[in-house]
Amino acid sequence: MKRLWTPAWIARHVAMVVLVTSFLGLGWWQVSRAAAGNAISWGYAVEWPIFAGFVVFVWWREVRHTLRGAPPATTGEAESATATATTGEPDGPAEAAGADGQRPGFRRPVRVARVAVSDGAEDAGLVAYNRYLSWLNANPGAKPGDYPG
Asked: DSSP string spanning the chain?
């Protein structure tokens, strides 16, 4: 639980409380305006509590994510982490998978570079369209029906 009391997390807790109370206050303000006869305020009176609920949802998800993460390294784990940092590779499959033998739940997405496949032959329709666009660019006042091709 100490992980949730760092300065960054205290700022997150305060921001969550301030946002939720502000959103609920704005919702109550819209209800009072709607009761006074402003019909569009009924929609806003519903929206502000939804925004507050979203803030609570994101805050709760981040708390759970932090608590599920690996605890700070102990002295024995710090030595193996130092060895991993110097060699660039873990000592074995148990270290790569974690202490309990399972892979971590959150991993970075793999980014694959996409390369356009071209067999060397150009598409005749694409060439004609590019020629048409070049003509339109060269003749800004012309209409599409004026195209000679």
From this structure: -GGGGSHHHHHHHHHHHHHHHHHHHHHHHHHHHHHTT-TTHHHHHHHHHHHHHHHHHHHHHHHHHHHHSPPPP-HHHHHHHHHHHHHSS-SSHHHHH-TTS---S--PPPP--------SPPPHHHHHHHHHHHHHHH-TT--GGG---
